[in-house]
Design a protein that fits this description.
This protein is mostly helical. It has 16 helices and 2 strands. It folds into 2 domains: 244 residues; 131 residues, Homeodomain-like (Arc Repressor Mutant, subunit A). Strand 1 and strand 2 form a beta hairpin.
Length: 386
């Protein structure tokens, strides 16, 4: 008992200290594109603290409660947060698979309802070992025991799906960077961190089925070392970001300011479809490492997806000018033809370029010339052919 409480308190204290360090560090940072990522990281620490606090009250008579609903639920929230964290750092936006996210939440919630009803009525089991589980199953109507097993099985099933999705996502993301000949050192370091965290989460999950206090004591020591390693990683990453974003490092301008200035040039620099990461960095006047950081860490995209996004934003801006033919805009932004641009534009903004321009024209209500009407008609025909 003393060993269990001592290791639990150490783990809670270490996590709380690291949580305070991270929160203070990010609290002082200016708001920007990285703000959401930082909030997700802070949420991870909060959920880990929640799990450790739930786990603190599980030990009795030299055994730790197994199949514990609050502990498993808090652990599941930590798994879900871990998946969102990985996605956020790989894609630069919140988890996009809405149907999977809905499934990950609805299934556990539906299985949790019977547990909440049993708890409200005061009829809930606290299994300290598997003998107690077997006694519950051998009752005349072992419905509560079966519902507990169903709850745990549903949670484990969702966790396995998360692991598969996470692995496929990271493999795809790394492969994209390799194909683009980008700098994968930052991704490799982050993947090592993800691997360590994933192994720890799997071990904690296995611990939900092991009542031995010694196992959980060793596990909590592992949590302490992992939390310290994660905190060091984020602190070093934050220092690296501050250095790259400093004005002195970039001769009076931040990386974002230099890139934005480069993108505002006329002709549009990304109209050259043969630009590589190195050529782009040289053209902007920043080190390749700095551009790689900006795209992969700051924007959270691959080089190709970043190029596509910049082209789309440029297209949208140029569509405000009714004097420009949409086909001309397509070539100016680096697309081979109008059909290619139209397809990409519709995928990004949900409407075709001609429809988008008509909406803008409807708001402004300009006097459209006969020439502009003819140009729009030609653009619509070209889009329909695509």
């Amino acid at each position: 008992m003393i060993l269990s409480y001592a290791t639990s308190l150490v783990a809670i204290a270490a996590t709380a200290i690291c949580f305070i360090i991270i929160t203070l560090m990010y609290w002082r940072s200016p708001s920007g594109p990285l703000t959401f990522k930082r909030r997700v990281i802070i949420a991870d620490y909060c959920l880990l603290l929640l799990y450790l606090c739930c786990h603190f009250f599980r030990s009795r008579n030299d055994e730790t409660e197994i199949l514990c609903v609050p502990s498993i639920l808090s652990l599941y929230l930590l798994w879900e947060s871990f998946l969102i964290t990985c996605t956020t750092f790989s894609n630069g936006k919140i988890y996009a698979n809405k149907y999977a996210l809905l499934f990950y939440n609805l299934l556990p919630m539906s299985l949790l309802i019977p547990q909440m009803i049993y708890a409200a009525n005061g009829h809930i089991y606290h299994f300290q070992n598997y003998d107690q589980v077997m006694q519950a199953l051998n009752q005349a109507i072992p419905m509560e025991a079966y519902m507990r097993i169903a709850f745990v099985a549903g949670i484990i099933f969702c966790m396995i799906l998360m692991i598969v999705e996470f692995l496929l996502q990271q493999i795809k993301y790394k492969q994209q960077i390799i194909e683009e000949k980008g700098d994968i050192r930052g991704v490799a370091r982050r993947n090592t961190l993800y691997l360590g965290t994933g192994i720890l989460l799997v071990t904690i999950t296995i611990g939900q089925f092991i009542p031995t206090i010694t196992f959980h004591a060793i596990l909590k020591i592992g949590i302490v070392f992992t939390v310290i390693a994660i905190t060091r990683f984020y602190v070093n990453l934050h220092k690296h970001i501050k250095k790259l974003e400093s004005h002195s490092y970039n001769r009076g301008k931040t990386i974002k300011e230099k890139i934005d200035q480069w993108l505002d040039q006329d002709p549009f620099p990304l109209s050259n479809t043969e630009l590589t990461m190195e050529k782009t960095a040289d053209s902007i006047g920043i080190p390749t490492m700095a551009l790689s950081y900006y795209i992969y860490e700051f924007a959270g995209k691959t080089f190709l997806s970043w190029q596509s996004e910049c082209r789309m934003l440029r297209c949208r801006e140029l569509l405000k000018d009714n004097n420009k033919n949409i086909s001309e805009i397509a070539y100016e932004c680096g697309y081979s033809d109008l059909a290619a641009m139209s397809k990409a534009f519709k995928k990004r903004f949900g409407v075709a370029p001609t429809v988008y321009r008509k909406k803008l024209s409807g708001r402004k209500r300009p006097i459209t010339s006969h020439t502009s009407q003819r140009a729009t008609f030609i653009d619509e025909k070209a889009e329909n052919r695509g």
